UniProtKB/TrEMBL annotation:
It comes from Salarias fasciatus. The lineage of its organism: Eukaryota, Metazoa, Chordata, Craniata, Vertebrata. Residues 51-152, 177-287, 308-408, 418-526 form the SRCR domain. Its cofactor is Cu cation. Pfam families: Lysyl_oxidase (PF01186), SRCR (PF00530). Mediates the post-translational oxidative deamination of lysine residues on target proteins leading to the formation of deaminated lysine (allysine). This is Lysyl oxidase homolog. Disulfide bonds join C77-C141, C90-C151, C121-C131, C253-C263, C333-C397, C346-C407, C377-C387, C448-C512, C494-C504. One of its GO terms (molecular function) is protein-lysine 6-oxidase activity.
Length: 755
């Protein structure tokens, strides 16, 4: 088509550096534990010595003993250790007494100095520093002999924790990869030195004991499904020349964690080289999912790579979980739905681990079967189908309990090549894209509004990270235009599934009839959207043929509800043959569906006595084997209202008396088979096999979170007297293979007839 072009505006993904490219500031030393290093005297005052419990696995009242001395955390050797020592230490930690002690590094080996050895307390000392020992730092032990204590889980009343560093307060908040100089700065960054954010800033991780399981967790957090080994020598050469700043060490993930904070790990003093003796900063390499490999952005978003897909989400990597069984998609019940199961889904789809496991249909409700319940994944499974689950019946679980996920997705910088200006809120405005001329100069520019529709706006809002498009605007003259730029893009056409406008088609050179800024494309984005779906089983159950006398069809003829040949009929004698059925249109989205036109432009239909708010709300069609329309339903104008709602939802829209029109979330609008115009006129149709198709909101005039479920199709068999519908289903309910079988239906019959 004319807007397809071989030339593309050069979209630049890299104009701002990735978040990992700024040099990480070392953790601030002012907030580091040990604000004032204790005096080096062996008789440090009791309140000065910081004691903490560390190691793994352990509870809050047990662990390896660590002492903060001369600005460094170190351990205690188990030689000569006794319950009396443990009593002193536990009281220092704020517990009433000890119930035991451990030897031989039961909670794992510490790092750094072994501060005390041959400690012999009497039991009544206020601090371990007051007990007999070989003196600070004088020890012939190794970390294999680190001592631990088990304290009675009862706090000393009124104990103020100022002397105790609770290791659990230190949390890894975020992780990022710093690509090393030699690797190209392409997005996404899949390999580099791991840096973790904690309350004091960013720091590196000691690679001693680092395993591929840790890598898996890091990759998952960064949006990558798989991990691979790095070339350690390459990094060693590079890192030797760098100044290191460790803070985290002894990371020991099992690989199924969704966040590094959930892994056993330990914190050391910022910058302390002793924290990683002989080690280096951990580096990882991740394998991106198919969408995020080089050139992956050019590929279309393929939802059903495997037997699982996400539906109804505003952003990439989020949505209601749907699984495929027997050629038909169904949902997952949220009973016991958790991050491990959600992560299996995310990784299976080529994203990282799960950020959130959502319950209660937070991404809208499905319409089809509910297949799985009580999914229990370990987190290592390749597919959600490999996790144990329970089959559900409709009594066990309803679509109100549909499970959903938000996955970690790689940082692609997509939002950096697009911006909105001039609007009243941050969710609306005139669109600007960053383009690069052949000289490499980058400029922001506007988009021509002429081809701009809801579809293109959907892609723009997704790219902006602002959710769904509420509207795509062809004119934006009513917005502030003090700082407008030139138009750089025209003829933009998207299919709606693209991740960024750069994947859509557009004119090779800007060609816009009205090139003024006031005719530039704009968007109004929204975190929520409606989603209309037809009840397919009701259509199948209610279909029948009626031969309706013409004298009862004057009103219908006036509203254009009959096929063209009706005009040549001998009114009022004779009849029309009508294919009748009920349509029940549900709003399963998260925002009310409202007609695009305001009530001032609604049309009064005197014949039927109500206002029509949308010119084209549905298409009803009968198609033959090659997809040609053999009968077209009227372009039904509708009066939208809440006929009924799910339990607990109240009706809001009513047609009567020029009432507000729309469909509330959780409600449906029913057009019974016996109301006027609710039919397809098949008077001229020959017996045979056909496909009956209903499309709601066919021109996508009103925003929905999902347009792939707007069509409903049935196999239709007509023998000249009676009619049967089979396999009625929503457009996205079948697998591709099942859909192909469905489409073949008319052909099969034709073959049989001809043979
Ligand atoms: C950590 O290292 C940075 C730079 O390498 C330095 O500016 C900072 O003072 C150091 N902090 C401590 C606590 O030594
Ligand atoms: C669930 O139902 C399917 C199809 O009816 C059956 O094949 C499967 O074995 C059942 N699974 C469980 C766990 O009950
Ligand atoms: C590109 O660079 C060339 C030579 O430097 C210059 O003549 C030309 O005007 C530049 N084009 C643009 C669009 O800036
Ligand atoms: C327009 O641009 C100027 C200079 O960049 C800036 O100071 C001004 O605030 C902008 N006006 C609006 C309405 O954005
Ligand atoms: C769809 O229609 C069928 C048949 O009348 C009914 O049993 C079912 O509850 C309807 N589905 C929904 C979601 O309302
Ligand atoms: C489609 O089928 C109809 C009749 O079934 C036929 O008249 C028409 O030529 C066909 N069109 C194409 C494009 O094959």
């Amino acid at each position: 088509s004319w807007w397809r072009s071989g030339w593309r505006v050069c979209w630049v993904l890299l104009q701002t550096p990735p978040p990992s490219s700024t040099r990480a500031p070392p953790p601030s030393s002012t907030r580091a534990p040990g604000t004032a290093p204790p005096p080096s005297s062996t008789r440090a005052p009791a309140q000065r010595l910081k004691v903490r419990l560390a190691g793994y696995p352990r509870k809050h009242n047990e662990g390896r003993v660590e002492l903060f001395h001369q600005g460094e955390w170190g351990t205690v050797c188990d030689d000569d250790f006794s319950i009396s020592n443990a009593h002193v230490l536990c009281r220092q930690l704020g517990f009433v007494e000890a119930t035991g002690w451990t030897h031989s590094a039961k909670y794992g080996k510490g790092l750094g100095r072994i501060w005390l050895d041959n400690v012999q307390c009497g039991g009544g000392e206020k601090s371990i520093a007051l007990c007999k020992s070989r003196g600070w730092g004088n020890s012939d032990c190794t970390h294999d002999e680190d001592a631990g204590v088990v304290c009675k889980d009862e706090r000393i009343p009124g104990f103020v924790d100022s002397n105790v560093i609770d290791v659990s307060e230190n949390k890894v908040e975020e992780v990022r990869l710093r690509p090393v100089a030699a690797t190209k700065r392409k997005l996404p960054v899949t390999e580099g030195v791991v840096e973790v954010k904690h309350r004091d800033g960013w720091a590196q991780v000691c690679d001693l004991g680092w395993s591929i399981k840790n890598t898996r967790v890091v990759c998952g957090m960064l949006g990558f499904p798989h991990e691979r080994r790095v070339n350690k020598n390459f990094y060693r050469l590079y890192l030797e020349r760098q100044k290191n700043f460790f803070y985290v060490h002894s990371v020991a993930c099992s690989g199924t964690e969704v966040h590094l904070a959930a892994c056993p790990l330990e914190f050391s003093r910022p910058n302390s080289t002793g924290a990683c003796p002989g080690g280096a900063p951990a580096a990882v390499s991740c394998v991106p999912g198919p969408l995020f490999t080089p050139g992956g952005l050019k590929k279309k978003l393929k939802t059903s790579v495997r037997g699982v897909r996400l539906k109804g989400g505003a952003r990439l990597g989020e949505g209601r979980v749907e699984v495929l069984r027997g050629g038909e998609w169904g949902t997952v019940c949220d009973d016991r739905w958790n991050l491990q199961a959600a992560s299996v889904v995310c990784r299976e789809l080529g994203f990282g681990s799960a950020k959130e496991a959502l319950t209660g249909a937070r991404m809208g409700q499905g319409m089809g079967p509910i297949y799985l319940s009580e999914v229990r994944c370990l987190g290592t499974e390749r597919s959600i189908w490999n996790c144990p689950f329970r089959n559900v019946s409709s009594e066990d679980c309803q679509h109100l309990e549909d499970a959903a996920v938000r996955c970690n997705v790689p940082y692609m910088g997509l939002e950096n090549t697009i911006r909105i200006t001039g609007g009243r809120t941050r969710y609306e405005g005139r669109l600007e894209v960053l383009s690069t001329d052949p000289n490499g100069t980058q400029t922001w520019g506007l988009i021509c509004g002429e081809t701009w529709t809801t579809m293109e706006a959907m892609v723009a809002c997704r790219q902006l990270g602002l959710g769904y498009a509420n509207q795509g605007l062809k004119e934006t003259w009513y917005w502030d235009s003090s700082n407008v730029t030139d138009m750089v893009l025209s003829g933009v056409r998207c299919s709606g599934t693209e991740m960024s406008l750069s994947q859509c088609q557009h004119h090779p050179t800007v060609s816009c009839q009205k090139a003024a800024a006031k005719f530039a494309a704009g968007v109004i984005c929204s975190e929520t959207a409606s989603d209309l779906v037809l009840n397919a089983s009701l259509v199948q159950q209610t279909v029948y043929i009626e031969d309706r006398p013409l004298h009862m069809l004057y009103c219908a003829a006036e509203e254009d509800c009959l096929s063209k040949s009706a005009a040549k009929a001998n009114w009022p004698y004779g009849h029309r043959r009508l294919l009748r059925f009920s349509s029940q249109i549900h709003n399963i989205g998260r925002a009310d569906f409202k007609p695009k036109a305001g009530r001032h432009s609604w049309v009064w239909h005197a014949c039927h006595g109500h206002y029509h708010s949308m010119d084209i709300f549905t298409h009803y069609d009968l198609l033959n084997a090659n997809g040609t329309k053999v009968a077209e339903g009227h372009k039904a104008s509708f009066c939208l209202e809440d006929t009924d709602c799910h339990e607990g939802v109240s009706k809001r829209y009513e047609c009567a008396n020029f009432g507000d029109q729309g469909i509330t979330v959780g409600c449906w609008d029913l057009y019974r088979h016996d109301i006027d115009c609710q039919w397809i006129d098949i008077t001229d149709v020959k017996p045979g096999n056909y496909i009956m198709q209903i499309v709601i909101n066919p021109n996508q005039e009103v925003a929905e979170s999902d347009f792939t479920n707007n069509a409903m199709k049935c196999n239709c068999k007509y023998d000249g007297h009676r009619v049967w519908f089979h396999n009625c289903h929503i457009g996205d309910a079948f697998s591709e293979e099942a859909e192909r079988r469905f489409e073949k239906y008319p052909g099969q019959l034709n073959n049989r007839i001809s043979s």
